[in-house]
Amino acid sequence: MSLSARVLDGDRRALARLLTHIENDDELGHAALDLLYPHTGRAHLVGVTGPPGAGKSTLVNELIRAYRERRSNIAVVAVDPSSPLTGGATLGDRIRMTEWHVDPDVFIRSMASRRHGGGLAETTLAVSYALDAAGFDPVIVETVGTGQDEVAIADLALTTILVQVPGLGDSVQTLKAGVLEIGDILVVTKADRPEAGELARDLVRLKTLNPGQRPAWDPPVLKTSATRREGIGAVIEAIDQHRAWLADSGELDRRRRRIATTEIAARVQAELRRRADADDDSCLNTLVEHVIARDLTPYRAAERFLGTLPV
Amino acid sequence: MTADVSRPDRARRIRVLVAKPGLDGHDRGAKVMARAFRDAGFEVIYTGLFQTPEMIASAAVQEDVDVVGLSILSGAHLALFPPIMTALRDVGRHDALVVAGGTIPKEDIPAVEELGIAAVFGPGTPLHEAVAFIRERAPTREDVP
Which of A10, A14, A175, A264 is the most buried (most CB within 10 A)? Predict the structure, then answer.
Protein backbone atom coordinates (compact mmCIF):
# COMPACT_ATOMS: atom_id res chain seq x y z
CA MET A 1 0.00 0.00 0.00
CA SER A 2 1.36 3.43 -0.90
CA LEU A 3 2.22 6.06 1.69
CA SER A 4 -0.50 8.43 0.51
CA ALA A 5 -3.20 5.74 0.66
CA ARG A 6 -2.07 4.81 4.15
CA VAL A 7 -2.16 8.47 5.18
CA LEU A 8 -5.77 8.77 3.98
CA ASP A 9 -6.47 5.56 5.84
CA GLY A 10 -5.39 7.18 9.12
CA ASP A 11 -2.00 5.47 9.43
CA ARG A 12 0.07 7.78 11.67
CA ARG A 13 3.32 6.00 10.99
CA ALA A 14 2.85 6.51 7.24
CA LEU A 15 1.93 10.15 7.82
CA ALA A 16 5.10 10.72 9.84
CA ARG A 17 7.23 9.08 7.16
CA LEU A 18 5.61 11.14 4.46
CA LEU A 19 6.32 14.31 6.43
CA THR A 20 10.00 13.36 6.39
CA HIS A 21 9.93 13.01 2.60
CA ILE A 22 8.14 16.34 2.23
CA GLU A 23 10.60 17.96 4.59
CA ASN A 24 13.50 16.57 2.57
CA ASP A 25 11.89 17.96 -0.57
CA ASP A 26 12.35 14.65 -2.37
CA GLU A 27 10.47 13.30 -5.35
CA LEU A 28 8.58 10.75 -3.28
CA GLY A 29 7.20 13.55 -1.13
CA HIS A 30 6.16 15.54 -4.20
CA ALA A 31 4.51 12.47 -5.78
CA ALA A 32 2.57 11.70 -2.58
CA LEU A 33 1.42 15.33 -2.38
CA ASP A 34 0.10 15.06 -5.95
CA LEU A 35 -2.22 12.36 -4.65
CA LEU A 36 -3.08 14.04 -1.33
CA TYR A 37 -3.55 17.61 -2.45
CA PRO A 38 -7.16 17.11 -3.66
CA HIS A 39 -7.97 16.05 -0.09
CA THR A 40 -6.68 19.31 1.43
CA GLY A 41 -8.35 22.64 2.04
CA ARG A 42 -10.53 21.49 4.90
CA ALA A 43 -8.29 22.35 7.84
CA HIS A 44 -8.03 25.79 9.34
CA LEU A 45 -4.35 26.75 9.42
CA VAL A 46 -3.50 28.81 12.48
CA GLY A 47 -0.06 30.40 12.80
CA VAL A 48 1.39 31.22 16.21
CA THR A 49 4.34 33.57 16.24
CA GLY A 50 6.18 35.79 18.71
CA PRO A 51 9.56 36.29 20.39
CA PRO A 52 11.63 33.42 21.89
CA GLY A 53 10.45 32.51 25.37
CA ALA A 54 7.18 34.41 24.99
CA GLY A 55 5.21 31.26 25.71
CA LYS A 56 4.21 30.17 22.22
CA SER A 57 4.56 26.44 22.94
CA THR A 58 2.75 26.82 26.24
CA LEU A 59 -0.08 28.68 24.50
CA VAL A 60 -0.22 25.96 21.83
CA ASN A 61 -0.40 23.35 24.59
CA GLU A 62 -3.43 25.16 26.04
CA LEU A 63 -4.97 25.41 22.56
CA ILE A 64 -4.59 21.64 22.17
CA ARG A 65 -6.40 21.15 25.47
CA ALA A 66 -9.25 23.41 24.43
CA TYR A 67 -9.61 21.77 21.02
CA ARG A 68 -9.50 18.29 22.56
CA GLU A 69 -12.35 19.30 24.86
CA ARG A 70 -14.30 19.91 21.67
CA ARG A 71 -13.18 16.55 20.28
CA SER A 72 -11.29 18.16 17.39
CA ASN A 73 -8.35 16.30 15.88
CA ILE A 74 -5.51 18.74 16.09
CA ALA A 75 -2.05 18.77 14.53
CA VAL A 76 0.84 20.99 15.52
CA VAL A 77 3.93 21.78 13.47
CA ALA A 78 6.55 23.36 15.71
CA VAL A 79 9.52 24.99 13.99
CA ASP A 80 12.82 25.65 15.76
CA PRO A 81 16.01 27.09 14.26
CA SER A 82 18.77 25.07 12.63
CA SER A 83 22.38 25.84 13.44
CA PRO A 84 23.94 28.13 10.85
CA LEU A 85 27.26 26.36 11.50
CA THR A 86 26.45 22.64 11.47
CA GLY A 87 22.88 22.49 10.17
CA GLY A 88 21.94 20.55 13.29
CA ALA A 89 19.05 21.55 15.51
CA THR A 90 17.59 21.02 18.96
CA LEU A 91 13.84 20.81 18.68
CA GLY A 92 12.37 21.39 22.11
CA ASP A 93 8.78 22.50 21.64
CA ARG A 94 7.38 19.03 22.41
CA ILE A 95 8.52 19.43 26.01
CA ARG A 96 5.61 21.83 26.62
CA MET A 97 3.13 19.40 25.08
CA THR A 98 4.03 16.06 26.64
CA GLU A 99 0.57 15.40 28.06
CA TRP A 100 -0.71 14.79 24.51
CA HIS A 101 1.99 12.35 23.46
CA VAL A 102 -0.31 9.35 23.70
CA ASP A 103 -3.52 10.99 22.48
CA PRO A 104 -4.11 9.43 19.04
CA ASP A 105 -6.05 12.50 17.88
CA VAL A 106 -3.17 14.89 18.53
CA PHE A 107 -0.22 14.86 16.15
CA ILE A 108 2.83 16.95 16.99
CA ARG A 109 5.72 17.27 14.59
CA SER A 110 8.92 19.23 15.23
CA MET A 111 10.64 20.83 12.26
CA ALA A 112 14.05 22.43 11.94
CA SER A 113 14.03 25.65 9.95
CA ARG A 114 16.95 24.35 7.85
CA ARG A 115 18.15 27.92 7.51
CA HIS A 116 15.09 29.09 5.66
CA GLY A 117 14.34 32.66 6.77
CA GLY A 118 11.15 34.16 8.07
CA GLY A 119 10.59 31.88 11.05
CA LEU A 120 9.51 28.81 9.06
CA ALA A 121 11.11 25.96 7.15
CA GLU A 122 10.77 25.99 3.37
CA THR A 123 8.45 22.99 3.49
CA THR A 124 6.32 23.90 6.54
CA LEU A 125 3.21 24.67 4.50
CA ALA A 126 3.59 21.46 2.47
CA VAL A 127 3.82 19.54 5.75
CA SER A 128 0.59 21.21 6.87
CA TYR A 129 -1.11 19.98 3.66
CA ALA A 130 -0.33 16.38 4.52
CA LEU A 131 -1.75 16.91 8.03
CA ASP A 132 -4.83 18.52 6.48
CA ALA A 133 -5.28 15.53 4.14
CA ALA A 134 -4.91 13.19 7.11
CA GLY A 135 -7.99 14.81 8.64
CA PHE A 136 -6.57 17.16 11.26
CA ASP A 137 -8.43 20.41 11.83
CA PRO A 138 -7.10 22.80 12.95
CA VAL A 139 -3.45 22.58 11.99
CA ILE A 140 -1.39 24.90 14.15
CA VAL A 141 2.01 26.11 12.98
CA GLU A 142 4.30 27.48 15.66
CA THR A 143 7.11 29.56 14.19
CA VAL A 144 10.69 29.95 15.29
CA GLY A 145 10.97 32.62 17.96
CA THR A 146 10.61 35.78 15.90
CA GLY A 147 11.91 39.28 16.31
CA GLN A 148 10.64 42.28 14.45
CA ASP A 149 10.66 41.27 10.82
CA GLU A 150 9.70 37.61 10.38
CA VAL A 151 6.26 37.96 8.88
CA ALA A 152 6.21 34.94 6.51
CA ILE A 153 3.60 33.13 8.59
CA ALA A 154 0.98 35.79 7.81
CA ASP A 155 1.27 34.97 4.10
CA LEU A 156 0.71 31.27 4.74
CA ALA A 157 -1.74 30.95 7.63
CA LEU A 158 -5.46 31.71 7.59
CA THR A 159 -5.39 33.05 11.13
CA THR A 160 -2.21 34.45 12.65
CA ILE A 161 -1.87 34.71 16.41
CA LEU A 162 0.82 37.11 17.50
CA VAL A 163 2.13 36.40 20.98
CA GLN A 164 3.61 39.28 22.96
CA VAL A 165 5.13 39.03 26.39
CA PRO A 166 5.45 41.76 29.00
CA GLY A 167 8.84 43.10 29.99
CA LEU A 168 10.70 43.17 26.66
CA GLY A 169 10.78 46.92 26.16
CA ASP A 170 8.90 50.15 26.55
CA SER A 171 5.91 51.31 24.56
CA VAL A 172 8.11 52.53 21.66
CA GLN A 173 8.52 48.87 20.67
CA THR A 174 4.82 48.61 19.96
CA LEU A 175 5.06 51.54 17.56
CA LYS A 176 7.51 49.83 15.25
CA ALA A 177 6.52 48.35 11.92
CA GLY A 178 6.82 44.66 11.16
CA VAL A 179 5.67 41.66 13.06
CA LEU A 180 3.21 43.59 15.24
CA GLU A 181 1.13 44.46 12.20
CA ILE A 182 0.45 40.91 11.07
CA GLY A 183 -1.56 39.51 13.97
CA ASP A 184 -5.21 38.68 13.40
CA ILE A 185 -5.30 38.00 17.12
CA LEU A 186 -2.86 39.56 19.58
CA VAL A 187 -2.19 37.57 22.74
CA VAL A 188 -0.35 38.94 25.75
CA THR A 189 0.98 35.91 27.61
CA LYS A 190 2.11 35.68 31.24
CA ALA A 191 -0.76 37.96 32.16
CA ASP A 192 -0.10 37.23 35.83
CA ARG A 193 2.85 39.61 35.53
CA PRO A 194 2.23 43.21 36.55
CA GLU A 195 3.40 44.78 33.24
CA ALA A 196 0.95 42.71 31.20
CA GLY A 197 -1.89 45.20 31.53
CA GLU A 198 0.26 48.06 30.29
CA LEU A 199 1.45 46.05 27.28
CA ALA A 200 -2.11 45.10 26.39
CA ARG A 201 -3.16 48.77 26.61
CA ASP A 202 -0.22 49.77 24.37
CA LEU A 203 -1.27 47.18 21.81
CA VAL A 204 -4.86 48.40 21.83
CA ARG A 205 -3.67 52.00 21.42
CA LEU A 206 -1.47 50.93 18.51
CA LYS A 207 -4.48 49.48 16.74
CA THR A 208 -6.56 52.61 17.12
CA LEU A 209 -3.73 54.65 15.57
CA ASN A 210 -4.23 52.73 12.34
CA PRO A 211 -7.91 53.21 11.55
CA GLY A 212 -8.97 51.98 8.14
CA GLN A 213 -6.10 49.56 7.64
CA ARG A 214 -8.19 46.54 8.46
CA PRO A 215 -11.68 47.88 8.02
CA ALA A 216 -13.57 44.64 8.53
CA TRP A 217 -11.59 42.76 11.14
CA ASP A 218 -10.51 44.34 14.37
CA PRO A 219 -7.70 42.22 15.89
CA PRO A 220 -8.62 41.57 19.51
CA VAL A 221 -5.98 41.98 22.21
CA LEU A 222 -6.32 39.11 24.67
CA LYS A 223 -4.48 38.25 27.87
CA THR A 224 -3.64 34.68 28.87
CA SER A 225 -1.97 33.09 31.85
CA ALA A 226 -1.04 29.43 31.47
CA THR A 227 -0.09 29.12 35.12
CA ARG A 228 -3.57 30.32 36.11
CA ARG A 229 -5.16 28.58 33.11
CA GLU A 230 -6.87 31.84 32.23
CA GLY A 231 -7.81 33.46 28.95
CA ILE A 232 -7.58 30.51 26.58
CA GLY A 233 -11.34 30.35 26.05
CA ALA A 234 -11.31 33.88 24.63
CA VAL A 235 -8.47 32.94 22.27
CA ILE A 236 -10.39 29.94 20.90
CA GLU A 237 -13.46 32.12 20.53
CA ALA A 238 -11.44 34.72 18.63
CA ILE A 239 -10.08 32.00 16.29
CA ASP A 240 -13.66 30.85 15.64
CA GLN A 241 -14.83 34.40 15.01
CA HIS A 242 -11.93 35.09 12.69
CA ARG A 243 -12.56 31.86 10.80
CA ALA A 244 -16.23 32.79 10.38
CA TRP A 245 -15.32 36.33 9.35
CA LEU A 246 -12.88 35.02 6.71
CA ALA A 247 -15.63 32.94 5.15
CA ASP A 248 -18.39 35.61 5.37
CA SER A 249 -16.34 38.58 4.19
CA GLY A 250 -14.77 36.95 1.16
CA GLU A 251 -11.37 37.41 2.77
CA LEU A 252 -10.92 33.62 2.79
CA ASP A 253 -10.76 33.56 -1.02
CA ARG A 254 -8.35 36.48 -1.01
CA ARG A 255 -6.10 34.76 1.51
CA ARG A 256 -6.19 31.47 -0.37
CA ARG A 257 -5.11 33.32 -3.50
CA ARG A 258 -2.33 35.04 -1.58
CA ILE A 259 -1.16 31.76 -0.07
CA ALA A 260 -1.08 30.03 -3.47
CA THR A 261 0.75 32.95 -5.06
CA THR A 262 3.26 33.07 -2.21
CA GLU A 263 3.87 29.35 -2.48
CA ILE A 264 4.39 29.29 -6.23
CA ALA A 265 6.69 32.30 -6.09
CA ALA A 266 8.68 30.78 -3.22
CA ARG A 267 9.07 27.55 -5.13
CA VAL A 268 10.23 29.33 -8.29
CA GLN A 269 12.69 31.32 -6.24
CA ALA A 270 14.02 28.20 -4.52
CA GLU A 271 14.41 26.39 -7.83
CA LEU A 272 16.26 29.33 -9.37
CA ARG A 273 18.48 29.48 -6.32
CA ARG A 274 19.27 25.79 -6.68
CA ARG A 275 20.13 26.23 -10.35
CA ALA A 276 22.33 29.19 -9.55
CA ASP A 277 24.09 27.29 -6.76
CA ALA A 278 24.54 24.19 -8.90
CA ASP A 279 26.86 26.26 -11.08
CA ASP A 280 26.26 24.09 -14.16
CA ASP A 281 23.66 26.24 -15.86
CA SER A 282 25.41 27.56 -18.97
CA CYS A 283 22.90 30.34 -19.60
CA LEU A 284 23.19 31.57 -16.04
CA ASN A 285 27.00 31.32 -16.16
CA THR A 286 27.12 33.41 -19.31
CA LEU A 287 24.97 36.06 -17.66
CA VAL A 288 27.19 36.03 -14.59
CA GLU A 289 30.20 36.74 -16.82
CA HIS A 290 28.40 39.71 -18.35
CA VAL A 291 27.48 41.10 -14.94
CA ILE A 292 31.06 40.75 -13.71
CA ALA A 293 32.35 42.41 -16.88
CA ARG A 294 29.96 45.30 -16.09
CA ASP A 295 28.28 45.23 -19.47
CA LEU A 296 24.95 44.07 -18.02
CA THR A 297 23.24 45.03 -14.76
CA PRO A 298 21.99 42.23 -12.50
CA TYR A 299 18.45 43.50 -13.20
CA ARG A 300 18.78 43.05 -16.97
CA ALA A 301 20.56 39.72 -16.50
CA ALA A 302 17.61 38.49 -14.43
CA GLU A 303 15.18 39.61 -17.14
CA ARG A 304 17.12 37.74 -19.79
CA PHE A 305 17.40 34.64 -17.64
CA LEU A 306 13.65 34.57 -17.03
CA GLY A 307 13.12 35.07 -20.76
CA THR A 308 14.88 31.75 -21.42
CA LEU A 309 12.57 29.77 -19.17
CA PRO A 310 9.77 27.74 -20.72
CA VAL A 311 6.33 28.91 -19.59
CA MET B 1 19.78 20.54 2.00
CA THR B 2 23.24 19.35 2.88
CA ALA B 3 23.68 15.63 2.55
CA ASP B 4 25.84 13.76 4.99
CA VAL B 5 29.05 13.44 3.02
CA SER B 6 30.25 10.45 4.99
CA ARG B 7 27.18 8.49 3.90
CA PRO B 8 26.49 8.87 0.19
CA ASP B 9 23.34 6.73 0.56
CA ARG B 10 21.90 9.25 2.99
CA ALA B 11 20.60 12.41 1.38
CA ARG B 12 18.74 13.50 4.48
CA ARG B 13 19.42 14.67 7.99
CA ILE B 14 19.60 12.14 10.80
CA ARG B 15 16.78 12.73 13.30
CA VAL B 16 17.35 11.63 16.87
CA LEU B 17 14.85 11.43 19.72
CA VAL B 18 16.54 11.99 23.07
CA ALA B 19 14.24 10.64 25.75
CA LYS B 20 14.34 10.54 29.53
CA PRO B 21 12.28 7.55 30.67
CA GLY B 22 11.18 6.97 34.21
CA LEU B 23 11.36 9.02 37.33
CA ASP B 24 14.87 10.38 37.59
CA GLY B 25 14.94 14.13 37.25
CA HIS B 26 18.51 14.64 36.09
CA ASP B 27 18.82 15.49 32.43
CA ARG B 28 22.28 16.99 32.29
CA GLY B 29 23.62 13.94 30.47
CA ALA B 30 20.69 13.95 28.05
CA LYS B 31 21.24 17.64 27.36
CA VAL B 32 24.98 17.15 26.77
CA MET B 33 24.21 14.38 24.28
CA ALA B 34 21.50 16.48 22.62
CA ARG B 35 24.00 19.28 22.21
CA ALA B 36 26.68 16.95 20.81
CA PHE B 37 24.21 15.49 18.31
CA ARG B 38 23.12 18.96 17.26
CA ASP B 39 26.74 19.97 16.74
CA ALA B 40 27.18 16.84 14.62
CA GLY B 41 24.49 18.18 12.31
CA PHE B 42 21.68 15.92 13.54
CA GLU B 43 18.18 17.15 14.23
CA VAL B 44 17.48 16.35 17.86
CA ILE B 45 14.03 16.15 19.36
CA TYR B 46 14.18 16.35 23.13
CA THR B 47 11.16 14.94 24.94
CA GLY B 48 11.77 16.27 28.41
CA LEU B 49 11.65 14.33 31.67
CA PHE B 50 9.48 11.53 33.03
CA GLN B 51 8.51 9.84 29.77
CA THR B 52 6.54 6.60 29.80
CA PRO B 53 7.33 3.89 27.22
CA GLU B 54 4.12 4.78 25.36
CA MET B 55 5.05 8.47 25.22
CA ILE B 56 8.49 7.63 23.84
CA ALA B 57 7.04 5.28 21.23
CA SER B 58 4.43 7.81 20.16
CA ALA B 59 7.04 10.57 19.84
CA ALA B 60 9.23 8.18 17.80
CA VAL B 61 6.29 7.66 15.43
CA GLN B 62 5.24 11.30 15.05
CA GLU B 63 8.76 12.63 14.73
CA ASP B 64 9.80 9.78 12.41
CA VAL B 65 13.23 9.63 14.01
CA ASP B 66 16.02 7.40 12.77
CA VAL B 67 17.47 7.00 16.24
CA VAL B 68 16.05 6.79 19.77
CA GLY B 69 18.51 7.70 22.54
CA LEU B 70 17.46 6.71 26.04
CA SER B 71 19.14 8.45 28.93
CA ILE B 72 18.73 6.90 32.34
CA LEU B 73 20.36 7.56 35.69
CA SER B 74 17.87 5.97 38.05
CA GLY B 75 19.20 2.41 37.85
CA ALA B 76 15.83 1.22 36.56
CA HIS B 77 17.12 0.43 33.07
CA LEU B 78 16.39 -3.30 33.30
CA ALA B 79 12.83 -2.49 34.37
CA LEU B 80 12.21 0.32 31.87
CA PHE B 81 14.02 -0.72 28.71
CA PRO B 82 11.97 -3.88 28.01
CA PRO B 83 8.59 -2.07 27.98
CA ILE B 84 10.12 0.72 25.86
CA MET B 85 11.34 -1.80 23.28
CA THR B 86 7.94 -3.50 23.34
CA ALA B 87 6.17 -0.15 22.90
CA LEU B 88 8.42 0.73 19.95
CA ARG B 89 7.66 -2.64 18.36
CA ASP B 90 3.91 -2.18 18.97
CA VAL B 91 3.87 1.10 17.05
CA GLY B 92 6.04 -0.24 14.24
CA ARG B 93 9.20 1.63 15.16
CA HIS B 94 11.47 -1.39 15.72
CA ASP B 95 13.32 -0.15 12.64
CA ALA B 96 14.81 2.74 14.66
CA LEU B 97 18.32 2.45 16.00
CA VAL B 98 18.04 2.46 19.80
CA VAL B 99 20.99 3.49 21.95
CA ALA B 100 21.23 4.09 25.68
CA GLY B 101 23.31 6.30 27.93
CA GLY B 102 23.65 6.98 31.62
CA THR B 103 24.66 4.93 34.60
CA ILE B 104 24.36 1.37 33.38
CA PRO B 105 26.74 -1.06 35.16
CA LYS B 106 29.02 -3.10 32.89
CA GLU B 107 27.47 -6.36 34.02
CA ASP B 108 24.04 -5.21 32.81
CA ILE B 109 25.20 -4.33 29.32
CA PRO B 110 24.75 -7.82 27.80
CA ALA B 111 21.16 -7.92 29.08
CA VAL B 112 20.50 -4.43 27.69
CA GLU B 113 21.98 -5.33 24.31
CA GLU B 114 19.95 -8.53 24.31
CA LEU B 115 16.84 -6.30 24.20
CA GLY B 116 17.91 -4.91 20.83
CA ILE B 117 19.60 -1.79 22.13
CA ALA B 118 22.53 -1.30 19.78
CA ALA B 119 24.96 0.45 22.11
CA VAL B 120 25.38 1.69 25.65
CA PHE B 121 27.26 4.96 26.10
CA GLY B 122 28.29 5.12 29.73
CA PRO B 123 29.75 8.09 31.59
CA GLY B 124 33.07 9.10 30.06
CA THR B 125 32.17 7.95 26.54
CA PRO B 126 33.81 10.45 24.17
CA LEU B 127 31.00 12.35 22.45
CA HIS B 128 32.52 11.84 19.02
CA GLU B 129 32.33 8.07 19.52
CA ALA B 130 28.59 8.19 20.09
CA VAL B 131 28.20 10.53 17.10
CA ALA B 132 30.30 8.28 14.85
CA PHE B 133 28.34 5.21 15.94
CA ILE B 134 25.02 6.83 15.06
CA ARG B 135 26.29 8.19 11.76
CA GLU B 136 27.50 4.70 10.87
CA ARG B 137 24.48 2.75 12.02
CA ALA B 138 21.45 5.01 11.45
CA PRO B 139 19.13 2.96 9.24
CA THR B 140 18.20 3.76 5.66
CA ARG B 141 14.72 3.15 4.28
CA GLU B 142 12.62 2.76 1.17
CA ASP B 143 9.07 4.00 0.64
CA VAL B 144 6.46 4.07 -2.12
CA PRO B 145 4.57 7.35 -2.74
Answer: A14
| Inter-chain CB proximity B40 and A87 less than 8 Å | no
CATH hierarchy code of domain A40-249: 3.40.50.300
Determine, for residues B42 and A88 on separate chains, whether the beta-carbon distance falls below 8 Å: yes
Q: Whole-angstrom Cα distance, residue B55 to residue B63?
A: 12
Q: Give the three-state DSSP class for A256.
A: helix
Q: Is B77 an interface residue toward A (CB < 8 Å)?
A: no
pLDDT, averaged per 10 consecutive residues of chain B (145 residues), comes to 40 88 83 93 92 94 96 89 97 95 91 95 89 92 74
Distance CA A246, CA A249 (A): 6
The interface pTM score, or ipTM, of the predicted complex is 0.89
Contact B126/A at CB under 8 A: no
Nearest to A101 among B1, B55, B143 (CB): B55
Domain positions in chain B are 15-42+51-73+86-103+115-137
The answer to whether the beta carbons of residues B117 and B85 sit under 8 Å apart is yes
Nearest to B4 by CA among B36, B38, B41, B39: B41
